[in-house]
Amino acid sequence: MKSSKHAKGFWLSIVLAVIFSIVMQFLISGGTLNPFYVNTLFSIGINIILAVSLHLIIGITGQFSIGHAGFLAVGAYMSAIVTMKLALPFPVAILAAGMAAAVAGLVIGIPTLRLRGDYLAIATLGFGEIMRIVFLNIDYVGGASGMTVTHLTTWPWVIACVLMTIIVIVNFTNSTHGRACLSIRENEIAADAMGINTTYYKVMAFVIGAFFAGVAGALHAHNFYIIQPGNFGFLKSFDILILVVIGGLGSMSGSVFAAILLTIISTYLSNYPELRMVIYSLVLVVMMLFRPQGLMGTKEITAFLKMGKSAKGGSHDDGKHTTA
Asked: According to its record, how does it sit in the membrane (predicted)?
C-alpha cells in the first residue's frame, strides 16, 4: 500500500512535468520567451540529467566519483562526430553518445570500482583528465580549438531526455538491483557477506550513470555550437558533484531542485563576472553551515506530499484513536 502511494505521487509529478513542458513549448514557439530564458531552460534540463545520473553513483551506490565530466565529454564529442562527420540524425547521435559513455564507464569501472573512498575519487578524477587530454590532441575533432556543432537541441528533446533519465533511475532504485546498490552504500562489507556481488552492482550503477551523462553531453554539444576540451575539465566534475551534495545525498528530488536553483543563480550572476564566483561560493558555504544535509536530506518530494496528507487526515479522524 505504501509503495502504491509512493508510485502514485511519483507519476503525478511526471504528469505535472509533462504539462509544464507543453506550456513551455507553447511559450517558446510563440516567441514569449526570449533566447536567454530558453537557453537557461536548456541548461537546467542538462544539469538535471547530470545531477540525477551522478546521484545514482554517489547517492544510491555510495561511490565517490569525480570524473563525471569525462563521460559528459565522451557523449558530447561522439554526438558531434555522428551529426557533423557522419551526417546522421540527432536521435542517433543522442543514442550513440549514451552508448559511448556507457562503454567508457564499463572500461573505467571494472578496474577502478574495486577501490573505495579517496582512492576511487582519485582514479575517476584521473579518468576525466585523460579524456580531456585525449580530445585535446585529436585533430579529427578539432584539437584545442574545438569542434563546431550545429544547433539541434530543442526543448522537446531536452524534456524527453530529462523525464527518461528520472523514470529509468527511479525504477532502477526501486528494483531489487537498486536495493542491492543501497545495501552497498550502507555497508559494503555486510552486503558482500550476504552474497551480493558488490563489484557487479557498482559497475552497473556506474554504467547507467555514465550513459545518461553521455546523453547530457549530446544535448550540451548541440546547444552551445562549439565544444572544446577545456569545457570538460575537473572543475566541471566538481560543479556536477556540488549539485548532488547541495540537493542531499540520497535524494533524487534534492538533486533536481539543486540543479534548478544553482543553474538559475549561476546564470543571473553572469552579469557580475568579477563577483560571480565569490557570491556563488558564499551561497554554498552558507548552505553547508545551516543545512549540511542538503536541501532534501535523504527524503523525496513524495514523502513531503504524504506528510501533508497524513497531517490533514489526522485532524479529521472523528476521534477514533487507539492506544499502545
From this structure: Multi-pass membrane protein
Q: In which region does residue 65 sit, left (phi positive, over 0), alpha (psi from -120 to 50) or beta (all else)?
A: beta
Is 303 contained in some domain?
Answer: no
What is the number of structural domains in the chain?
1
| Gap between the Cα atoms of 155 and 32, Å rounded | 14
> For the chain, how many residues are written?
324
| DSSP letter (8 states) at residue 81 | I
Nearest to 186 by CA among 54, 65, 52, 63: 63
- Asked, for residue 53, whether it belongs to a domain, the answer is yes
> For residues 70 and 104, what is the distance between their CA atoms, to the nearest angstrom?
9
Query: Above 60 in pLDDT, residue 63?
Result: yes
How far is residue 92's CA from residue 97's CA, in Å, rounded to a whole number? 8
- 225-241 pLDDT per residue, tens: 889 998 898 888 888 98
The answer to whether residue 311 sits within a structural domain is no
Q: What is the CATH number of the domain that holds 131?
A: 1.10.3470.10
> Residue 78 in contact with residue 195, Cβ under 8 Å?
no
> Measuring CA to CA, how many Å separate 288 from each of 66, 120, 243, 264, 285?
19, 24, 12, 19, 5
Work out the pLDDT band at 62, boundaries 50, 70, 90.
confident
CA 109 – CA 120 distance, rounded (Å): 10
Q: Is the pLDDT of residue 85 over 80?
A: yes
As a whole number of angstroms, the distance between CA 317 and CA 124 comes to 54
Q: Note down the domain range covering 134.
A: 33-232
CA–CA separation, 132 vs 124, rounded Å? 13
Set of cell numbers at residue 241: 558533484
d(CA 25, CA 16): 14
Whether 54 maps to a domain, the answer reads: yes
Q: Check if the beta carbon of residue 219 is closer than 8 Å to that of residue 95.
A: no
